[in-house]
Amino acid sequence: MANVNNLGLTLEQLARLTVVDHPLVQHKLSILRDEQTGTKQFRDLVRELALFEGYEATRDFELEPVQVKTPLEECTCQHLAGKKVAIVPILRAGLGMVDGILDLIPAARVGHVGMERDPKTHEPHEYYCKLPPDVEQRTCLIVDPMLATGGSATAAIQYLRDAGVRDIRLLVLVAAPEGVRAVLDFDPDVRLYTCALDRELNGSAYILPGLGDAGDRIFGTR
Ligand SMILES: O=P(O)(O)OC[C@H]1O[C@H](OP(=O)(O)OP(=O)(O)O)[C@H](O)[C@@H]1O
Ligand SMILES: O=c1cc[nH]c(=O)[nH]1
Ligand SMILES: [Mg+2]
């Protein structure tokens, strides 16, 4: 696995990278990587890991005081200060992470960005995009289990920037060093969350050790 200190990132870029290394996350990720893990369990784990990661990626959401009357007395509590959120899965594999985040933020809107990598050039091709009409007022959580070359993620970030979105956070489960550098170099403000920093890409731009093709494993299309 890669070490966060050996990625050649600047201190400013390091501050925008979070590796979610909670023991439960690492345990679930090990099962996800296992080639013996079947479609149903794989899909369940992607959803659960997205929930854990969403918890970390929303840690700085602002609160405001609210008065609550318990059965015993009134007290001042905190509730979310009305932050509006959009979840933006990169199709297909990103769809697997949507429900886990919706479990945390049920009022979030969902936009879709359809990208497919060309198997030879590894360049992403956009085939579908649909965002909520007020997306520029929302914090956007782009979700995709895999960050390999970074081509798909940077194209999705550019699409959201063109739509006027200011607060963009990219949530992936497994990242290659190449993809981490590409994303943090590409956009000076995006924040990146990953559960694992893997070693490298192979000649077909698949992540090593990785978990194979996330889309095929989620949807059983291999
Ligand atoms: O960082 P990159 O080099 O762009 O690679 C990562 C992308 O590749 C995979 O999608 P894929 O194109 O296989 O589409 P799918 O989700 O429909 O399987 C993955 O889910 C990412 O979107
Ligand atoms: O390892 C990889 C790279 C891209 N897409 C995947 O699904 N897996
Ligand atoms: Mg795929």
Strand content: 25-35%
CATH overall fold name: Rossmann fold
The backbone outline, from C-alpha atoms, is globular
- Report mean pLDDT, rounded to a whole number: 97
Structural class: alpha/beta
Distance between the termini: 26 Å
**In CATH terms, what is the architecture?**
3-Layer(aba) Sandwich
Please describe the biggest sheet, giving its number of strands, its sense, and whether it closes into a barrel: 9 strands, mixed
Radius of gyration: 18 Å
Helical run tally? 7
Low-confidence stretches: none
Order of helices and strands: HEHHEEEHEEEEEHEHEEEH
Helix content: 25-40%
Q: Could you explain the architecture of this structure?
A:
The mean pLDDT is 97. The protein has helices at 11-15, 23-33, 39-57, 95-104, 151-162, 177-186, 214-219, and strands at 17-19, 63-69, 74-80, 85-91, 109-110, 112-117, 124-130, 139-143, 146-147, 168-175, 191-197, 200-201, 207-208. The radius of gyration is 18 Å and the shape is globular. The protein has a single domain (10-219), classed as Rossmann fold, CATH 3.40.50.2020. It is 33% helix and 29% strand. It is α/β, with parallel strands linked by helices and 222 residues long. The strands form 3 sheets. Strands 1, 4, 5, 6, 7, 8, 9, 10 and 11 form a 9-stranded mixed sheet that branches. A two-stranded antiparallel sheet has the order 2-3. The protein has 7 helices and 13 strands. The two termini are 26 Å apart. Residues 93, 146, 148, 206-207, 210, 213-215 line the site of uracil. It holds the Pfam family UPRTase. Keywords: Allosteric enzyme, Glycosyltransferase, GTP-binding, Magnesium, Nucleotide-binding, Transferase. Its EC number is 2.4.2.9. Belongs to the UPRTase family. 5-phospho-alpha-D-ribose 1-diphosphate binds at residues 92, 117, 144-152, 213.
